[in-house]
Each structure stands twice: as C-alpha cells, then as structure tokens.
Amino acid sequence: MSETRVKICGVTDVADAELAAELGAWAVGMVFYEPSPRRCSVEQAQRIAAALDRREIELCGVFVNATFEEIEHHVQDLGLSLIQLHGDEGPTFCVEAARRTGTKAIKAIQIAGAGDVRQLGRYHVDFHLADAKARSREAKRLRGGTGETFDWELLAGRRSGTPLILSGGLGAENVGEAIARVRPFAVDSASGTERAPGHKDEAKLRAFFRAVASSGEPAESDAAAIPA
Where on the phi/psi map is residue 143: left (φ > 0), alpha (ψ -120 to 50), or beta? Predict the structure, then answer.
C-alpha cells in the first residue's frame, strides 16, 4: 500500500467529511474564503467538527489573506489542528499564525515556473502545498480548486526538506502518475472528487482513494520478481 496521505479539501457537509474519514483521509479541509464556491459556513464547519471529533484525522481550515484574529477565532471555535494559508501571506505571518494558534501550518504556493518553487523554500512551516497557478482572471480570484494541473517536473528543483502536499487538478485518473513522479507526503483533491463545488461524488472519492493506495503497489511484472 502507498504511504502517501490524502487530504480532501472543499468539504461543506457532514456526510462527505465522514466518508473521507472512513476511507482513510489524513486531513479534511474546509474553505473559509468568501469568493470560493466551496466556502464552508461557520454552522456547516461546526457540524463537521462535531462529527469528526475523536477521530484520528486532521481538521484543516483554509484561509486567504485572513487576519490573525479571524484565523484564531476559527481555530478556537472549531478545534482546527491545521491551518492552510492560501493567499499572499509572507513567511513571518505564517510562522506567527502557527505560533498564535498552536496549530500546524501549511503554506500554499501556486506554481507556474521554477521561481515559484523557490518561493516555497522561504516558508518555514510544517508543510508546503504546491498548487497550479490559475490562468484566467476568475480562476485567480478563486485561489485554487480550478481543476488545473501544472508541470510536476518543476518540483524536481525543490531543495526544501519540508513535507510536500501536491494539489491542482488531481483525480483518480492522474493521481497515481503524480505520486510516482513527485513522491509527495500527501495529495490534495477538491474539484477532482466532486459532483458540484463543495459537494463530493462518492464514486469519485472512492476511486481516488483506490488510485492512491494502488500507486504504492508493485506492478505485475515487478511482483513476480519479489521473493516469496
């Protein structure tokens, strides 16, 4: 089995969160960014947090250029264990946000070139997340979840030892290849496992987890060479 973790993002209802947990998700992400079609209301987030209480799963809040006060309020209200900073937050802000909240921090960078990969190295946080850089004006406004991929080969130039979460257009059809080429700590899926923004498709979600799991299994030709 693959050791690659799975983060399911853009969750807005209890049933989807519980299914992700049952399938073995490492983390479930809720977006607290008003323009996003996957925005999770406080009431929805409270229900999700209550449903996942006592489960061994990271509860992640996704923020875009939020204030310290906003982030702290959500962490305290919901018991978040992870914060994902997906905007223009600088290195110092990210470190301070983690310190103030007592959570682990993910810094997301949208990747289009080698310079973007180097940017990740400036952030001394718990996890780096590599997402696709949006192309259209509307996609840029949404800050992720666009279903677009990027050139994974760019990550070969990454020198940081910080665990990497790979995001951007991942679904059951391409996550195996992504894992084989990047070898990330975790993969992150939002649009690739949805039937509509903020609402998961059970078949797609199950297929995604199967694809991640099988990515760590030897190919049939290799299996024959493994001693019994």
Answer: left
Q: Long-range pairs for 146-149 at CB < 8 Å and ≥24 separation?
A: 146/191, 147/191, 147/192, 149/174
Active-site residue flag, 94: no
Q: What is the pLDDT of residues 153-210, one digit of tens each?
A: 999 989 899 999 999 999 999 999 999 999 999 999 999 999 999 999 999 999 999 9
Q: Which residue out of 9, 40, 60, 94 is catalytically annotated?
A: 9
- Residues 15, 16, 22, 26, Cα dihedral to 10°: -140
Q: pLDDT tens digit string along 43-100? A: 999 999 999 998 999 999 999 999 999 999 999 999 999 999 999 999 999 999 999 9
Catalytic residue of the set 40, 60, 94, 131: 131
Model pTM? 0.90
- Specify whether 131 is catalytic: yes
